[in-house]
Amino acid sequence: MAMKKILIVDDMLVSLMMTENMLCGHYTTFSASSGQEAIEIYRREHPDMVLSDLRMPGMSGYELQQALQKEMQKNIPFMFMTADPDEETESKGFENGAMDFIRKPFRPDVLLRRVGNILQTVDQIEGLKKHASTDPLTGLLNKVSAEVELQRVCAQGQGALLMVDLDSFKLVNDIYGHAMGDKVLMSFADILRVSVRPDDVVGRLGGDEFIAFCSGMNDEPGIMNKAASINKMLDKSARELMGDDMAIPIGASIGCVFVQPGGEEFPELVEKADKALYAAKQEGKHGCHIFKEDNTDDEDSAATLTNVGKILGERHPANGAMRLPFEEFRTVYRFLRRTMGIFGKPISILRFSLPNGTDEKTMEAFFSLLCSTLRTADVATKNGGHCLVLLVNTSFPNLAHAADRLRKKWTEMEIEEGMEADFEYEWTVMEP
Fold this sequence. Notes:
Rossmann fold; 15 strands; 5-stranded mixed sheet
């Protein structure tokens, strides 16, 4: 662990050297013989605390403290030294925000103990601030702290404000459970950290929504490359967590607005970035849309003829059967019933059943195996303790062969995972 840094300020050379000698074995010390020199050292080194003589020519210890805190826009831990026996001087020092006061001459053990107490208090305060300002799951800034920090940086200079939303994240919780969902969120937070510079701002707004500000970034290709890199890393991380056969089309949609030199009002920037995020979702997800002032407010503007295919189509079709919620499965079923007389293809519906009382984890494992065994033209859903499947243009021999493959794979999985849940199935050909 790096040693704490202390700036010692005293216009008396002998006193300065003695104080530095007392502390140098325990801390990294910097010495200044005037207030102005101390300011220059502070700008360069950013020490953890300042130990300053109170009465100095040109700039007193009080004036040094006020000047530094005004410039740095924060409270700086100060401890004053003085040979003045006046108790009123000590009282004034505390009124000005000093954390401690020590009278010369002082013993080394007393100085070390009191400096240590100050640094320990500062660490405790910083720890409480960090706890209050960070999201406990991801370690990123929480919503309130992120908005405060972003208001500051967006008002100061140019850059790119990014609104980020995870695509299909709800499926992670629904299929793999909330513990896996938390792992994905933590991994994605790490991806965002490595995708920006250390002095950029990244926060979690809640759920699967994040926000970031990339200072000084104002080129579209750079943002697009960053968005592509984030999605590539997210896909890799998701497969490491959930397995290579993971069929969830998880990704990140990003809305970007460029902040102009001189800064802009944060609420207006958020509104623009949010509109860009909506457009990214409409354009097919897993990508980035950059806000431009001539964007229309019409929410249907993204749904033009040229990108309808992107909006309606699957961006990353998974292998195996299409997994659908029950209501969407029912819509497909009704559509096939309407059209089966036109295309003349046999359509079968199957119901797979596991024993009553089968736990959700086993049911999900079976459903995932079932989907991976079927064709991409098939459709599957879960309904209670059953799995339903629609098969197009499938004869009985092919259906029986598919069921045999499934039973063989399921038996192997039962042995490997220690599960005991044999399944039954029934099927029928749909009638018009």
